[in-house]
Design brief:
Chain lengths: 448, 166
């Protein structure tokens, strides 16, 4: 069914210099249902950080598409990815966002499971007059068909027929290294989770993270506040990382950043930041250069917005945010967001990171609401089919080059495509990778 | 010697703040705050525990210094923030006002709030609710806000929350 419709949703003709996406991909409920089956419940999705369950019996809960998931660390320290649904009547077993439990007891009929998901007890089993066939079947929490970790980043899939995690992440794993290597101890989430919703399709968030074009248009109020603060710096205001860069201003000349896109839909857009004390990482600049070399250290300071398709975004720009996209309906999305930080950060750097984060990333801050309200404006506009094709995938069409460039080379990273950009190019071809992976998962799922 | 803050004075200050926010009289609202005042909206660690140390944990908003609130007011009025334009209509209802402690120059009061918000653009209504704690100081005979903590209980935010809607 989808195969016939794909050409109505994505118009991908590289030889003609055409890439267009239909408004219907954002607001058709049938498309959304297929996305849940094939994108989210049919392939790799990000689950969380190993640091969210650091010790024995620690756990956290999340979802894969609509399916509740429990990630639990057992007594030996091994992490398990489990379906958080009781085999008895289907109830969600673990109720909380995170916690510590040797035993997970279903609140409905008291079936219980250990920290590896194995059934420990079925209430009044002996008196239950069960048939032999019942005893022959497993009563454990179902194990995710695929579950994997890369340097503390946990991924799972409800579909076993997926590439290995190594293949799925591919060269984009090097960009996760840039985060994980900021401290020898790895990364952690600052306590305090912020969740918000917006009334628009999940792919608006997917794209916005990679959208260099909107910054000066959607966020002039934030930019002006920062300019005003720069004039009158005192201890009461937090410094802004943007003062260490000109790549976003539209005035800077020469190469200021660009984009990389990877197989399986992962993309990065980036901009040059100086090694500046406006960045919380500054006090580690020397140590990081000694440990990883200057080129990799410089990359750690660059502005980087990374998407690991389809639901993980790590934005290192105004501060550092890890966000998980959870589609709720075709026109509703929930965002779970955290401040991600290198473990063992000095107190003052940590404080600065947190303050910068709150100002920019929070739904109570000065930037994110101007994004999410814009998503909602788009969602309303998508109702039109007078001209169904959107024109937001065309910038950079003649700048996109296969493979890497002089900036990816020092990292030993070989992307599928790259764009080198001045301050005004604001590549949109990186979205193509999203929709090519989208089409691949949708077609593969429809075929099986 | 001044008398300690009375319940009546506490209520009047809270109701005045509510009215100034409801009527977008933000300059007068800022005047209630001392220049070095703290404005704090904790985030939540989990279902039951708000964050407690703004230096090492995330908040929804944490400002030390009124000038940060002045920035927020400027932004909301600038016409350069689509989230703030057109403005939502809000009404703050303050109840359960208790003077926790008070002497002639300082006081701490707690209260409950509900803020009904109507966003005409999206025809969306929402109610934010929680508890306030105000620390007050008497300066030149008038009670002013030295610190305000807003414990927002329903912290899954529908798109936008700003200083005027909590």
């Amino acid at each position: 069914m989808l195969k016939g419709r794909l050409a109505e949703l994505i118009d991908d003709r590289p030889d003609d210099g055409v890439f267009r996406v239909s408004r219907a991909i954002f607001d058709d409920p049938n498309v959304f249902d297929l996305e849940m089956h094939h994108i989210f419940e049919g392939g790799w999705v990000f689950l969380g950080l190993a640091a969210q369950a650091p010790g024995p019996y620690d756990y956290f809960t999340t979802t894969i598409g609509r399916v509740p998931v429990l990630v639990s660390r057992d007594s030996d320290g091994k992490l398990h990815g489990l379906v958080n649904s009781c085999p008895h009547k289907g109830s969600r077993v673990a109720q909380r966002l995170h916690g510590n439990a040797r035993l997970h007891v279903c609140p409905y009929h008291s079936w219980s499971f250990d920290s590896a998901g194995q059934n420990k007890a079925i209430k009044w089993r002996k008196a239950g007059c069960y048939a032999e066939s019942f005893d022959a079947s497993s009563h454990d929490l179902p194990v995710l068909p695929v579950f994997g970790e890369y340097r503390g980043f946990l991924f799972g899939s409800l579909n076993a027929a997926v590439p290995s995690l190594t293949e799925h992440l591919g060269e984009a794993a090097i960009l996760l290294d840039l985060i994980a290597d900021q401290s020898e101890e790895g990364v952690e989430l600052v306590p305090g989770e912020v969740t918000f919703t917006y009334d628009a399709n999940w792919k608006l968030q997917l794209e916005n993270c990679s959208d260099a074009y909107h910054f000066t248009s959607a966020h002039p109020s934030y930019i002006r506040v920062l300019e005003q603060r720069k004039e009158q710096t005192d201890a009461s205001v937090v410094r802004s990382v943007w003062e260490s860069s000109e790549y976003w201003t539209g005035d800077a000349e020469g190469i200021q950043g660009g984009s990389f896109s990877f197989q399986y839909g992962h993309v990065l857009n980036w901009g040059r930041f100086e090694i500046s004390d406006a960045l919380p990482l500054y006090d580690r600049a020397t140590v990081l250069a000694e440990r990883h070399g200057e080129a990799k250290r410089d990359w750690m300071f660059n502005m980087r917005n990374l998407t690991i398709f389809p639901n993980l975004q790590i934005a290192e720009n105004a501060s550092s945010q890890l966000r998980v996209i959870r589609p709720v309906g075709v026109g509703k999305t929930e965002m779970r967001t955290w401040c991600i930080a290198p473990k063992g950060e000095a107190a003052e750097a940590h404080r600065q990171r947190i303050r910068q984060y709150e100002d920019f990333f929070n739904p109570s801050g000065m930037a994110t609401p101007d994004d999410t309200v814009s998503y909602e404006n788009c969602q309303r506009g998508f109702a039109s089919r007078v001209e169904p094709w959107l024109q937001g995938y065309a910038r950079g069409m003649t700048a996109s080059q296969p493979g890497g460039n002089l900036f990816s080379q020092p990292l030993g990273m070989e992307p599928q495509f790259n764009v080198l950009a001045d301050a005004q190019l604001c590549d949109e071809t990186l979205y193509h990778s999203y929709y090519r992976e989208w089409a691949r998962r949708m077609l593969e799922g429809s075929a099986s | 010697m001044n008398a300690p803050l009375s319940s009546r004075e506490a209520e009047e200050l809270l109701y005045t703040e509510a009215l100034l926010l409801d009527e977008s009289r933000w300059d007068e609202w800022l005047e209630l705050y001392l220049p070095d005042s703290v404005f704090w909206v904790p985030a939540w660690r989990d279902e039951t525990t708000p964050t407690q140390d703004p230096e090492s944990e995330l908040s929804l908003i944490y400002y030390r210094g009124r000038r940060n609130l002045e920035d927020r007011v400027w932004r909301a009025r600038s016409g350069m923030s689509v989230a703030s334009t057109p403005p939502s209509r809000v009404v703050h209802a303050i109840t359960n006002v208790l003077v926790e402690r008070a002497d002639s120059s300082e006081a701490v009061i707690s209260s409950c709030f509900t803020v009904h918000l109507y966003d005409r653009r999206s025809d969306r209504t929402h109610v934010f609710f929680g508890r306030y704690q105000h620390a007050l100081q008497r300066v030149d005979g008038a009670w002013r806000i030295a610190a305000k903590k807003i414990l927002l209980l329903n912290d899954v935010i529908p798109t936008v929350v700003d200083f005027y809607s909590i």
